Amino acid sequence: MQTAAPTPYCWLNGAIVPAAEAAISVYDHGLLYGDGVFEGLRFYQRRPFRIERHLHRLQDSAAALGITLPYDADALREGISALISRYDGESGYLRLVVTRGPGNLGLNPRNCATPNVFILADQLSMASSEAQEKGLKLIIASVRRTVGAGLDPRVKSLNYLTSILARMEANVAGADEALLLNERGQVAEASAENLFIVRQGRLLTPPTSDGALAGVTRSVIIELAQANNISVSERTLTPYDLYTADECFLTGSGAGLLPVAEVDGRPLRTSPGEVLQRLRQAFAALITQECGA
After folding, report:
1. How far is the C-alpha of 226 from the C-alpha of 219, rounded, in Å?
2. Were 232 and a residue from 143, 165, 179, 225 both cysteine, which residue would form a disulfide, CB within 3.0 to 4.6 Å?
3. pLDDT digits (tens, 9 = 90+) for 91-113
4. From CA 121, how far away is CA 135, in angstroms rounded?
5. What pLDDT digit, counting tens, does each position of 10-33 carry?
6. DSSP assignment string, 196-263
7. Percentage of the chain surpassing pLDDT 70?
8. Has 134 been annotated as catalytic?
9. Measured distance CA(278)–CA(25) in Å, rounded
10. Which DSSP string corresponds to the chain?
């Protein structure tokens, strides 16, 4: 018999309620204009993984948009701890969201007096079991990631329309995920994950200056590669580098580590490959060490 999924809960401005009962104003500028920031993180054995890095990035994103957080890091840690304690599951996913708050129908953020903060605890799976085992089918989307002339990609804002349009292209093409290039035709990232490739034993990932998010899991993988004597560096990549890579995989707090089997119909040499297998083992060991999972 299939076990029922845990009931999703929400910490909303200091109070915990079932997620289905949580509500904010329809005048909130996070809803009206995508004006806000967020973080997604995992918890294992009721312990959040790399919470300090997520909170630091949230603070940076809010500062970049001029949003004053109504709760400090200690209060957010306490809220996350209380929410996990209420949630009926040992492991899960947390979505921490800060909106500009309610104002009027005008665009001017000056009219928004108090930001809203909510944290969701639920389950999240970014790929099927088969795709996690054999690898994802990727396409390169026609929409581009703007670098230098728009919002800095290091800001994890609520505006994900570019990524949504890319994922829609993947759906139409029958692919699992889409990759975004920047306006120079260089690889930025997937719609919701960072990207790594392996060429001749070297692990490579696009720099944030090419449009990649400064992902928390991305930074963990770089650290684990260095600790396990795997050569790793940031380097500008083009579609050619993907088509001719020995391995390719995606990383993210929601996704974990996902192998890529093909890009634009071109099969990768190995999926999952030896480097990914080693990093998966090291990543699992790190989670056990830090969370006891």
Report:
1. 11
2. 225
3. 999 999 999 999 999 999 999 99
4. 27
5. 999 999 999 999 999 999 999 999
6. EEEETTEEEE--GGGT----HHHHHHHHHHHHTT--EEE----HHHHHT-SEEEEEETTTEEEEEEEE
7. 99
8. no
9. 47
10. -PPPPPPPEEEETTEEEEGGG----TTBHHHHH--EEEEEEEEETTEETTHHHHHHHHHHHHHHHTPPPSS-HHHHHHHHHHHHHHSS-SSEEEEEEEE--B--SSS-GGG--S-EEEEEEE---SS-HHHHHH-EEEEEEEEEE--SSSS-TTS-BS--HHHHHHHHHHHHHT-SEEEEEETTS-EEEESSSEEEEEETTEEEE--GGGT----HHHHHHHHHHHHTT--EEE----HHHHHT-SEEEEEETTTEEEEEEEETTEE-S-SS-HHHHHHHHHHHHHHHHHH--
Q: Which of 100, 137, 156, 218 is catalytic?
A: 156
How high is the pLDDT of residue 293? 62
**150 CB-near residues (< 8 Å, 6+ apart):** none
Tell me the pLDDT tens digit for each residue of 225-265: 999 999 999 999 999 999 999 999 999 999 999 999 999 99
Asked whether the bond before 8 is cis by omega within 30 degrees of 0, the reply is no
Q: Is the pLDDT of residue 62 over 80?
A: yes
